[in-house]
Amino acid sequence: VNNRHLKIQLRTSDALSPVEHKIEALVRKELRRGSLQVAVQLHGGQFTAAALLSEEVISSYVAQCNELSERLGLQKAVSISDVLQLPGAVVDPKSNTSEDITPELETCVLATVNEALANLNEMRLKEGASMATELNKQLEKLVSISTAITERSPQVVEEYKERLSGKLTRA
């Protein structure tokens, strides 16, 4: 919150990428400055399925590797672990398309983000009030110390004069 401007780091599940700009706009509407990390994930139903292997993509990779090995006279040593590292071999069912984001789901996500922002602002108000109380206590101490110094300063000057006069008479 100590930044002059608002810096937002937004992370969402792939399925929410179509509404990222709306989430960021909502955050910018509620906050003016600071540094904020926002993470929005979908859980449950279609969004919690395990990763799936794309047999079509894997078969294509293996066929291409075998064909290339034969053409170049190389040993055929393509392992499944090698192929699973290649793009598209493992499909994340959570990375749905924007068609899977219904208006109801979008409304729910934005309402949840809005609720989280309201809670954040409430916490910031409480923290600010607590800081104001602490700063006022410190200010009262400083005023008290300053008053004591002001009251004692004529006496200190007089004591200093007496010591200096004593030194001069002894010299």
Q: Could you give the topology of this structure?
A:
Elements: E1 6-12, H1 20-30, E2 34-40, E3 52-53, H2 55-72, H3 80-84, E4 90-91, H4 103-170
Parallel strand pairs: 1-2
Antiparallel strand pairs: 3-4
Structural commentary:
The structure is a single chain. The protein has 171 residues and is mainly alpha-helical. The chain has helices at residues 20-30, 55-72, 80-84, 103-170; strands at 6-12, 34-40, 52-53, 90-91. A two-stranded parallel ribbon has the order 1-2. It has a two-stranded antiparallel ribbon with strand order 3-4. Helix 1 links the parallel strand 1 (6-12) and strand 2 (34-40). Helix 1 (20-30) packs parallel to helix 4 (103-170). The protein is elongated, with a radius of gyration of 34 Å. The model has no long low-confidence stretch (mean pLDDT 86).
